Amino acid sequence: MAENKRKRCQNFTFDEKDKLVKLMNTFKNVILNKKTDGTTNQAKNEAWVNLCTRFNSTGTTARSKESLMRVWEKMKTDAKLYKALSKSSHNGTGGGPSCVKTDIILEQVSDLMGRACTGITDCNTRNVENIENNDVGNNNDIAPTLSSPTSSQFIKSTPIWKRRRPIIKENKDKAEVVSTLCGGFKDLNSKKATVEDLKIKMLEEEIKFKRELYQLQLETARKELEIKTEVCNQLKGMCFIYW
């Protein structure tokens, strides 16, 4: 049993972590790709092999590809915790400076992750603590960089929806707001009905005007026809007398 137990590796130093982050910046387009198809996974594996080769070419302690992958995953988790603590501390001070100590390595990891590094909520801190405890037994070559946050550090921050919506505490205020909104909708509906009635009246008046104009045009045409008929009769009479 003692022979099958995994041998403890040396902890990563600050310089080694800094070197890993700088090398990750070179291969980030491949390793941080969200796709998981066969071609992408093969490219990621090749990138990790190249990264491991370049990492061991300038160091005194040889690190395996799996060790580098584990420490990178640990650094990503710590970066999310670091961002969550920084945000919580920033909100707790009313927008003032954060009380969390600046970590250069985790700042670089956060920049590499971009929008993916948005911090994690309190419900995930227990999972993170379990991961750290498992890493102590399974992967002792990774040194912890952050202390586990407490639930109070996350509860201090005001939820986004509370910041954007007015908080109505009493039922009376709620009833007034609801009645005001309902009254506004009723006024709007009544105005729409008035506009529709005006449109109908305008259409009726337009139809009536067109009918009267049509009758006048018919009457004018009838008068013109009578005049032309009378002129023709007179011309016929004159021609008969002449002949």
TrEMBL record:
<dbReference type="InterPro" id="IPR028002">
    <property type="entry name" value="Myb_DNA-bind_5"/>
</dbReference>
<protein>
    <recommendedName>
        <fullName>Regulatory protein zeste</fullName>
    </recommendedName>
</protein>
<dbReference type="Pfam" id="PF13873">
    <property type="entry name" value="Myb_DNA-bind_5"/>
</dbReference>
<keyword id="KW-0805">Transcription regulation</keyword>
<keyword id="KW-0804">Transcription</keyword>
<comment type="subunit">
    <text>Self-associates forming complexes of several hundred monomers.</text>
</comment>
<comment type="function">
    <text>Involved in transvection phenomena (= synapsis-dependent gene expression), where the synaptic pairing of chromosomes carrying genes with which zeste interacts influences the expression of these genes. Zeste binds to DNA and stimulates transcription from a nearby promoter.</text>
</comment>
<feature type="domain" description="Myb/SANT-like DNA-binding">
    <location>
        <begin position="8"/>
        <end position="81"/>
    </location>
</feature>
